[in-house]
Amino acid sequence: MKIVVIQGPNLNMLGIREKNIYGPMKLEDIHAQMKGFADQNKLEIEFFQSNLEGEIVDRIQECLGDADGIIINPAAYTHTSIAIRDALSAVQIPTIEVHLSNIHQREEFRHKSLIAPVCAGQIMGMGPFGYHLAMIGIMQLLSEVSAFKQARQAQKKTQEQA
Ligand code: DQA
């Protein structure tokens, strides 16, 4: 099973930017923890960060036929990007949206996520731990999807034999 983690603009500045909001942890340290957890659970994991909307759209499209799940923090594009939302909607891969901060406690322009409606779930306000929760969530989702597929295959087989 493969998961792709996509990080939006300015998340490469974690550990430097607004530490009072995002905390002191660097993105590479968050990714190292996620990699450790993925290894323990025999998951393949890839990380991608970009400050450019089109590159994020391209990376989502590349997930088609390649990734089983996506964890995305679209950062500021959460509140503006119809293109990222459409890309997620196009690939139809189970996706969890993560925010380090609680966007509802912040400025009003952050309250709306254009991405949330095309995601299976959203985790926010838990700092870097939110990414760990997202990995647990995606594993659960993927096991449900695979159990559903197996049940459907078994049902098809019985129908063919009848
Ligand atoms: C963020 C919240 C966004 O509003 C903001 O633009 C970010 C980070 C978060 O993780 O809390 O860059 O996505």
Distance between the termini: 34 Å
How many helical stretches?
5
Indicate how many domains the architecture comprises.
1
Shape: globular
Radius of gyration: 17 Å
Short description:
The protein has 162 residues and is α/β, with parallel strands linked by helices.
Structure description:
The protein is of the alpha/beta class. The protein has a single domain, classed as Rossmann fold. Helices cover 44% and strands 16% of the residues. The chain has helices at residues 19-22, 27-40, 53-62, 82-91, 129-161; strands spanning 2-7, 44-49, 69-73, 95-99, 121-124. It has a 5-stranded parallel sheet with strand order 2-1-3-4-5, sandwiched between helices. Strand 3, helix 4 and strand 4 (95-99) form a beta-alpha-beta unit. Helix 3 (53-62) runs parallel beside helix 4 (82-91). The mean pLDDT is 96. The site of 1,3,4-trihydroxy-5-OXO-cyclohexanecarboxylic acid has 10 residues, from loops.
Task: Please name the defining characteristics of this protein.
44% helix, Rossmann fold, binds 1,3,4-trihydroxy-5-OXO-cyclohexanecarboxylic acid, alpha/beta, 162 residues, five-stranded parallel β-sheet, globular, 5 strands
Layout: helices, strands, pairs:
Blueprint: E1 2-7, H1 19-22, H2 27-40, E2 44-49, H3 53-62, E3 69-73, H4 82-91, E4 95-99, E5 121-124, H5 129-161
Parallel strand pairs: 1-2, 1-3, 3-4, 4-5
Helix pairs in contact: 3-4
The structure holds 1,3,4-trihydroxy-5-OXO-cyclohexanecarboxylic acid.
